[in-house]
Amino acid sequence: METTIAGKQVKLNEQGYLTDLNEWSREVATALAAEEGVELGEEHWPVLEYLQNQHKQEVPLTIRKVGKSGIVDIKGFYALFPGGPLKKASRIAGIPKPASCI
Asked: Is the terminal CB of the chain with fewer CB neighbours within 10 Å at N or C?
């Protein structure tokens, strides 16, 4: 479905994830984060960039892998994206929901 987020036309799948990473921007991320109840700060951006890079390299994502990334530990990941960190962070990062997420 097509919608406008942060003044930009984007395509979302039925679960609300961007279907094209090229449509992602910090403004779109900020708007998606607000929908998820997350207020983005400087500590969020390296995590989002890490997720995007892993997705581009076709590396399957898990919470454990993010926790071992050196970017953020698991406890910190949950603190940054409470209530489903990988699911929320992936949506905000503009990548598909990881297969490891229910």
From this structure: C
The full length of the chain comes to 102
pTM of the predicted structure, to 2 decimals: 0.93
Among the residues of the chain, which ranges form H helices? Answer: 26-35, 44-56, 63-67, 74-80, 85-93
Contact residues for 98 (Cβ-Cβ < 8 A; gap 6+): 60, 61, 62, 86, 87, 90
Q: How many domains does the chain have?
A: 1
Q: Which two tokens stand for residue 58?
A: 């076709």
In 10 A of CB 12, how many CB atoms? 17
| Domain containing residue 36 | 2-93
- Give 23-57 pLDDT, tens digit per residue: 999 999 999 999 999 999 999 999 999 999 999 99
Strand partners, 10: 3
- Any idea which residues carry the catalytic annotation? 101
